[in-house]
């Protein structure tokens, strides 16, 4: 460091002598890491001056340096927190992907994910989920133990819990119970209305069973299909709309091509709406095989895909050759009709010019697969055995199920054809046909095989499609219902029973009452539900839902013992 000269005047230094001249004075701070000052000077008061100046500079430097130290520490802490947050987010994303995929790093590294999932996907995911749940429960338990140990001796838990409970009871009785009781009363009223509707429908089904009411064709029995001139074999167009149906397209095409009907009197339209080129090639190849075997079948694919199923059917009905056909039968890709399906449905149209639709019921090949399929079977058996049959017998109207039905083409055209305005195109065309005066017939003894969704995800998607469109359709059809010329009681049935009660109130109240309000009343005793709402009426409704299932089982048993058995669908061409 350069020598320090003349800080407090040269004269004083000369008068005072040369005692401090050229003598280095070193002042060290308390913290040696901060600074060292070398001072060359003289004077009698040099030591006092150095002590005073050093103290001032030390205080200034101490304040600034402490500030910068704290800023540096805060910067490091922020960086560490950011890194921890990023790592936690990445770890959470990885854990979520593993939970969804049900795999580990070793499977992904070895490229064996697909093989492992094919071998035992359910057990692997079950074990993985069990491990995650166990770790979560252990973490919560340890957290409770730590909180209890931390508060031991500091907080009187008994007094705290008692005070919290008293406050919660007061808040619950004042603010929670009144609105909950009001909502519960409203749901109870809706529950009673819906229960009365189901009770009357069940009584109507019982009346049909006792009186043995059964729709019968006005024409005599059909003659042999090998001689079309000897009987009533009108021209029938059979449509199979499908979209990316890799698993079931062979079975559905085979079932339709094996229908017991003169080959020259029906044409099969395979309406492929797939966006997968490989699937399109497979379906087209299957159609070509059946065409070479003598079946009247055509493959149709729309380049401009719009309107989903309704758009697909609308495009197919615009073909020029459709005018040569009188009826159209529709089967979804996962439906497999029996060979005598047309023989048991088409004769109902003869000499019955007001009949627009003949609907068959569904039967399920996988109804005993798991608990979900069993519950669906119970629900759908009530739908077909009670709802569809009663409405078909007494008012000649019900919702078209979208498949396993035969339409008079004139009724479809008179109703305005297929429309893409809603996701429930089947219900839409049924309502419009009913407003035009067309009648419907439901055949409870004619079945068409299909499959039920076996997973909750597939079931959820199906129910979303079925329940997302009726209210939109009601909004669109309400002006037409009011202006149409049908009798008043049919208008009331459409508005209050068909739409409001069964399409809006039923899904709303059933979930709200039994999944939200009923569990909440267990924790809010001020809001009460009558015992007959919680126990007696649900037991009666459950009994009414199960009875059609057992009747259907007995009918199926006698039906299976008869000569008519389900067709054995080949996996390839005959």
From TrEMBL:
<dbReference type="GO" id="GO:0099402">
    <property type="term" value="P:plant organ development"/>
</dbReference>
<dbReference type="GO" id="GO:0071555">
    <property type="term" value="P:cell wall organization"/>
</dbReference>
<keyword id="KW-0472">Membrane</keyword>
<keyword id="KW-0808">Transferase</keyword>
<dbReference type="InterPro" id="IPR001173">
    <property type="entry name" value="Glyco_trans_2-like"/>
</dbReference>
<dbReference type="GO" id="GO:0016757">
    <property type="term" value="F:glycosyltransferase activity"/>
</dbReference>
<feature type="transmembrane region" description="Helical">
    <location>
        <begin position="504"/>
        <end position="523"/>
    </location>
</feature>
<keyword id="KW-0328">Glycosyltransferase</keyword>
<feature type="transmembrane region" description="Helical">
    <location>
        <begin position="128"/>
        <end position="151"/>
    </location>
</feature>
<comment type="similarity">
    <text>Belongs to the glycosyltransferase 2 family. Plant cellulose synthase-like C subfamily.</text>
</comment>
<dbReference type="GO" id="GO:0048868">
    <property type="term" value="P:pollen tube development"/>
</dbReference>
<feature type="domain" description="Glycosyltransferase 2-like">
    <location>
        <begin position="327"/>
        <end position="522"/>
    </location>
</feature>
<feature type="transmembrane region" description="Helical">
    <location>
        <begin position="529"/>
        <end position="547"/>
    </location>
</feature>
<keyword id="KW-0333">Golgi apparatus</keyword>
<feature type="transmembrane region" description="Helical">
    <location>
        <begin position="171"/>
        <end position="193"/>
    </location>
</feature>
<comment type="function">
    <text>Probable beta-1,4-glucan synthase rather involved in the synthesis of the xyloglucan backbone than cellulose. Seems to work simultaneously with xyloglucan 6-xylosyltransferase. Xyloglucan is a noncellulosic polysaccharides of plant cell wall and consists of a glucan backbone substituted by xylose, galactose and fucose.</text>
</comment>
<dbReference type="GO" id="GO:0000139">
    <property type="term" value="C:Golgi membrane"/>
</dbReference>
<dbReference type="Pfam" id="PF13632">
    <property type="entry name" value="Glyco_trans_2_3"/>
</dbReference>
<keyword id="KW-0812">Transmembrane</keyword>
<dbReference type="InterPro" id="IPR029044">
    <property type="entry name" value="Nucleotide-diphossugar_trans"/>
</dbReference>
<keyword id="KW-1133">Transmembrane helix</keyword>
<keyword id="KW-0961">Cell wall biogenesis/degradation</keyword>
<protein>
    <recommendedName>
        <fullName>Glycosyltransferase 2-like domain-containing protein</fullName>
    </recommendedName>
</protein>
